[in-house]
Write a structure and sequence with these properties.
The protein folds into two domains: 47 residues, no CATH class; 202 residues, MetI-like fold (Orthogonal Bundle), CATH 1.10.3720.10. Strand 1 and strand 2 form a beta hairpin. It starts with a helix and ends in a 10-residue tail after the last helix. It is mostly helical. Helix 5 packs antiparallel against helix 8. Helix content is 69%, strand content 6%.
């Protein structure tokens, strides 16, 4: 009996051993954000919110000043716009690839995987000149469009999987009643794949939210997002690690909140009897 219990405990011990370093880092992260006057660099002598003073005070960079709220608003606008673009394009393309028969459909699906395998850094120079020629360089909407384009290939596959789960009878019945394909997509399919809409939006939002290389390269230094703001804090001669930890904590709240509020929708995946293809 004791042998069986010991055998069952082995996987949990292995998981605990693997997770321990990450848990220690998170604990240290929170201690540094809320701790003041650290002893030995890890033990807070007292607790407080002094490290969060950027919430009500401007951040001074040399002779210039900026606020966390400006960078936070820019990041929210950038990530939301990118997630919206990814969602609209992927839901339209996913429906077409799931329901419409056309020449080269299989090749197009394979091409999406190939495009997703290409690192975004390789395309950075091409994206730079493309945005320059169309007048969207150094503008948040242009960078959001470029960032969304990197996540669309796999997002199309995600959307197609949700549409594949809807029986053909649903579409045929709607078209017999006089609906066009666009009406079927908008009025019938989208309400049935709400978890898919949430999943694709989260996909596009999260990758834009934590993006650094594109916003750092394609946006001017005067337009701060949270990633470049934290990078500026790291570039100073004297680094305030408590200040940095508090700012990073605020930076991590929106994606965590988004996942918590939408996780119920993500679990409500429709299960039907047939497949689209």
């Amino acid at each position: 009996m004791a042998y069986k219990r010991g055998t069952k405990a082995i996987p949990y011990l292995i998981l605990g051993f693997v997770a321990a370093p990450f848990l220690i880092m998170y604990v240290g992260f929170f201690l540094r954000a809320f701790g003041e006057k650290m002893v030995l660099g890890i033990i807070p002598a007292q607790w407080g919110i002094y490290n969060f003073r950027f919430l009500w005070q401007p951040i001074t960079w040399g002779l210039e000043q900026t606020t966390m709220w400006t960078a936070f608003g820019n990041t929210m606008f950038f990530a939301t716009l990118s997630g919206f673009i990814v969602t609209v394009i992927c839901m339209l393309a996913g429906y077409a690839l799931s329901r419409v028969e056309f020449r080269g459909r299989s090749f197009f699906l394979i091409l999406q995987l190939v495009l997703h395998a290409v690192p975004g850094q390789i395309l950075l120079i091409a994206v730079f000149f493309l945005l320059l020629y169309i007048g969207l360089l150094h503008r948040i909407p242009g960078v959001a469009l470029a960032r969304a384009a990197l996540e669309i290939p796999l997002g199309v596959w995600m959307a197609k999987g949700f549409f594949d789960g809807i029986p053909w009878d649903v579409e045929r019945a709607a078209m017999v009643d006089g609906c066009t394909r666009l009406q079927v997509w908008y009025k019938i399919f989208l309400p049935l794949v709400k978890p898919g809409i949430a999943a694709v939006f989260i996909w596009g939002f999260l990758f834009a939210w934590h993006d650094f290389i594109y916003v750092y390269t394609l946006l001017p230094g005067t337009i701060k997002v949270m990633a470049t703001l934290i990078q500026s804090l790291l570039a100073t001669e004297v680094i305030d690690y408590g200040y940095l930890a508090a700012l990073s904590l605020i930076y991590s709240i929106p994606p965590l909140s988004l996942f918590i509020f939408l996780q119920r929708a993500l679990l409500k995946v429709p299960i039907f009897g047939g497949k689209g293809t």
